[in-house]
Design brief:
Structural class: alpha/beta
Number of domains: 1
Order of helices and strands: HEEEHEHEHEEHEEEHEHHEEHHHHEE
CATH topology: Spore Coat Polysaccharide Biosynthesis Protein SpsA, Chain A
Distance between the termini: 52 Å
Strand order of the largest sheet: 5-4-3-6-11-8-12
Radius of gyration: 20 Å
Length: 320
């Protein structure tokens, strides 16, 4: 076991001109239930980060496939773990975060992985830019064997455009936030939802803070045959719409956003108007800069800087 002095010493690095800068403590949770096929790759992707101030907790929901044996193999290198029946992944996540103290938070599911240096990206962004409360990196994908096989273009994010239907796919594996934001937004994931609770959490976060895109790789989603979310895309989309409708009810501007959302299905059924509507209105939700877009965070000259937005090309289709 490391002593307290060693932990403090390891949590510091040398910055420019010889000054010491501390790495913020990151609370990372992995929920798992019968994912032994992928779990070891996930854990190793976390530990291989060698992040100097990591609070990593694993919550097992009573696995019967050997997942617990894998966790035990690494228990000396993590903050802690537990195994007991739960009410699903989001219940496990809440349990895990309740047992962590890190000021920066995120979770990585037992089938997904972090990219090399991903935690250092997250930790150093929050360390260097105190005004930033919520970040996400490039959306990336692994195949079943763990190879990186896909990457999304980096979109900008806006609460109103998000609720209108643009750029909704905030990749959870690449997303981290400050605990202060978590607490202001309710301090929990909505574990009554079986699917899409991360989406519901993002809606609450948007009430309090802007989401900054980071031009870097942090984490990725594994595309595999056992994925619950990929097998229930229509159900997830329905939950997304329910969450948005509830959010619009509490917003003064909600009636205008709802009107926009209701007009879209009607217009897209009219062939002569559909193309004009998409080119003139929908595509602009993705590509036209505005004051609602926070700067993009990029690395330059040894530090992270927030650069002013600019027009981007983005090919994703609106998800109304």
């Amino acid at each position: 076991m490391s002593t307290t002095t060693e932990l403090i010493a390891n949590a510091k690095i040398r910055g420019g001109e010889g000054r010491e800068r501390e790495w913020p403590r990151i609370a990372l949770v992995t929920p798992v239930r019968n994912s032994g096929k992928y779990l070891e790759q996930t854990i190793r992707s976390v530990l291989a980060q060698n992040y100097p101030n990591l609070d990593y907790f694993i919550v097992d929901g009573g696995s019967t496939d050997g997942s617990v044996d894998i966790i035990r193999k690494y228990e000396g290198q993590i903050s802690g773990w537990m195994s007991e029946p739960d009410n699903g992944m989001y219940d496990a996540i809440n349990k895990g975060f309740a047992r962590t103290t890190g000021e920066i938070m995120g979770w990585i599911s037992a089938t997904d992985m972090l990219h090399v240096g991903g935690l250092r990206v997250a930790g150093s962004v929050f360390r260097d830019l105190p005004e930033v409360e919520w970040i996400t990196g490039h959306g990336t994908y692994f195949n079943e064997e763990g190879m990186t096989v896909g990457m999304h273009a980096m979109p900008h994010w806006s609460r109103y455009r998000f609720l209108a239907g643009a750029n909704r796919a905030i990749q959870q594996e690449s997303t981290f936030w400050r605990r202060a934001l978590w607490e202001r937004a309710g301090g929990r994931v909505e574990d009554s939802l079986r699917y899409a609770a991360d989406f519901e959490l993002w809606v609450r976060f948007f009430r309090h803070a802007k989401l900054y895109s980071v031009d870097a790789f942090i984490g990725g989603f594994r595309v595999h045959s056992d994925s619950l979310g990929l097998g229930e895309l229509e159900l997830c989309a329905g939950i997304h719409n329910q969450v948005i409708e509830a959010e619009l009810d509490r917003m003064p501007e909600g009636k205008w956003l709802r009107l926009f959302r209701n007009v879209h299905p009607a217009l897209k059924r009219i062939p002569i108007i559909r193309g004009l509507w998409r080119r003139g209105v929908l595509n602009n939700l993705y590509r036209i800069p505005g004051p609602d877009w926070p700067p993009v965070i990029r690395r330059g000259n040894g530090k992270w800087v927030a650069q002013k937005w600019k027009r981007i090309e983005w090919s994703a289709k609106p998800t109304f």
